[in-house]
Amino acid sequence: MDIQKITEENVRQIYSPCGPDFGNYIEEKTYLSELIKGKLNSGWKGFIAKENEKVVGRIEIQPVEISTSPLTGSNHYYLPCIWVLPEYQKRGIGKILLERMLNESKDRAGVITFAMKEMGWMHESFFKKFGFEETDLKLSPFSVLLKKNFNLDLPQLVRPSFEHEKNENAVVIEIVEDMMCPYFRVWQNELMKIAQEYGNKVQVIKIKPKTREEILKYGSGNIFVDGAEPFVGPAEPDEIKSVIEEKLKDKKIKLP
User: Fold this and answer.
1) Residue ranges in the chain modelled with pLDDT below 70
2) pTM for the complete prediction?
């Protein structure tokens, strides 16, 4: 197993294990890796695990103050994602990646991450094995965990604060693009295609937060349907259609 630190030379490999290598996935991986390239001198750190020259796992941390997270504060890192390809899981690769990253994080007060209680990805039990503890911060359905290096006030969570578009004659879907995950970005594009099947009965608004201030205002990877957030992660087409059609009924708008 070869663990490599991300540099300008291998930056495009950080997203290699994230979603398949075709079509929109390649485009999104390229776009997001270029964003990461611009942050390498600002404290962003990443590692990949390779086996027989294939990238099979990845991890990254970002200084909170330049991160894609809804967190304010300083002197902490934010860990948005650790991922190992399913066929390579349960072989200790995730452990190696996380331990390597934690060794790289000691220059700051700690590492904060959002973990899941139920889903297999980013499961909280995995992080707790490495000393991550639950905080008082709440971001349902996530657990907000911290691996503390030294005492310092925690970053604070910021909820999106922009004014949602209203339309009495259509369901409004506001898609805040994900600025970190190519898998989620491709899913957002699929959601938009499904929404467009309803014609003018659904109004789709796409928001692309490019600056830190815009991320704090709009979030990153948020989906709002008439101002509510009905999805936790990527949803199946039937779930998307069910949410849209329920909102159409609420507004007494006939289905197409």
Assistant:
1) 119
2) 0.93
